[in-house]
């Protein structure tokens, strides 16, 4: 682990090979001097079969990040860390931490921690996913104790197509979703390849409820278990990660 004398921090990301968003957003929302280092797992389509096969690369990716002397490893894939249901996310964190020799967080578990610290119970979820993955995500969140009032997916499977979406797409989808339900405690924009962090502040102003994204929750959680600072967006980052 870095001793902090030569750098404000090194953040390790384990990402799907076709993800073009996570590294960009993590670098954008961390202070100057924090470096972001990624190791990739093979994935082209966000489907159950490919996500399942991708998980075989995760441990090796974390081990390689450990060679870079990172302070924390973040498994930056939402559906990849919830695919096998409750408990898989915690097991994944433990496995990757052992492989890298540093603390590790996984997006699905990070989302739960973020919603809990925001004291959210009723949530609305916007995703780019197909219906089968939306249902797996609903099941995962409901098993964790949240009421998923509505989940809305774009039906996209090609991950490069997800990565081509703009923050305005996320803002429009989340706004329409929130307006379609009576009341929620928070809105969650799912997928680490969905460019949505830049939309968080505007969404919170428009909707007057907390808004988290897969990357905001993962970044916040990575800061929680390491010495790395953050310039993250949204009220989530008003909560000290050490709480």
Can you tell me about this structure?
The protein has 243 residues and is of the alpha/beta class. The protein folds into two domains: 10-109 and 216-238, 3-Layer(aba) Sandwich (Rossmann fold), CATH 3.40.50.12500; 113-213, 3-Layer(aba) Sandwich (Rossmann fold), CATH 3.40.50. Helix content is 40%, strand content 17%. The chain has ten helices and eight strands. It has helices at 22-28, 48-54, 58-67, 88-100, 107-117, 131-143, 159-163, 167-179, 200-207, 214-224; strands at 10-16, 35-41, 72-75, 104-106, 122-127, 147-153, 186-189, 211-213. A four-stranded parallel sheet has the order 2-1-3-4, with helices on both faces. Strand 1 (10-16), helix 1 and strand 2 (35-41) form a beta-alpha-beta unit. It is globular, with a radius of gyration of 16 Å.
| CATH-scheme architecture of the largest domain | 3-Layer(aba) Sandwich
What's the number of structural domains? 2
Going across the biggest sheet, name each strand in turn.
2-1-3-4
Number of H- or I-type helical stretches: 10
- What general form does the structure show? globular
Radius of gyration: 16 Å
Which stretches are low in confidence, meaning pLDDT under 50 for 5 or more residues running? 1-5
CATH class group of the largest domain: Alpha Beta
Give the CATH topology of the largest domain. Rossmann fold
Quaternary form: single chain
Rounded average pLDDT: 92
Alpha carbon gap, first and last residue: 22 Å
The description of the largest β-sheet is:
4 strands, parallel
Q: How many beta strands in the DSSP annotation?
A: 8
Strand content: 15-25%
EC number: 5.2.1.1
Pfam families: Amdase
InterPro entries: Iso_Racemase_Enz_sf, MaiA/AMDase
Protein name: Arylmalonate decarboxylase or maleate isomerase
């Amino acid at each position: 682990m870095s001793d902090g004398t030569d750098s404000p921090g090194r953040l390790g990301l384990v990402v799907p090979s076709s993800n073009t968003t996570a590294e960009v957003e993590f670098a954008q929302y961390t202070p100057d001097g924090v470096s972001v280092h990624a190791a990739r797992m093979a994935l082209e389509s966000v489907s159950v079969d490919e996500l399942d096969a991708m998980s075989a690369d995760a441990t090796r990716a974390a081990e390689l990040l450990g060679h870079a002397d990172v302070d924390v490893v973040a498994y930056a894939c939402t559906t990849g860390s919830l695919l096998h249901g409750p408990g898989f996310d915690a097991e994944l964190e433990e496995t990757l931490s052992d492989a890298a020799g540093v603390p590790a967080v996984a997006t699905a578990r990070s989302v739960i921690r973020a919603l809990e610290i925001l004291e959210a119970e009723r949530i609305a979820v916007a995703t780019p996913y197909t219906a089968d993955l939306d249902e797996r995500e609903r099941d995962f969140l409901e098993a964790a104790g949240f009421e998923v009032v509505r989940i809305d997916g774009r039906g996209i499977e090609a991950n490069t197509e997800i990565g081509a979406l703009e923050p305005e797409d996320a803002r429009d989808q989340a706004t329409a979703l929130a307006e379609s339900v009576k009341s929620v405690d928070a809105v969650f924009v799912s997928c680490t390849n969905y460019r949505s962090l830049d939309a968080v502040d505007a969404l919170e102003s428009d909707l007057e409820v907390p808004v988290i994204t897969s990357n905001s929750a993962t970044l916040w959680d990575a800061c929680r278990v390491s010495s790395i600072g953050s310039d993250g967006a949204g009220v989530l980052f008003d909560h000290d990660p050490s709480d």
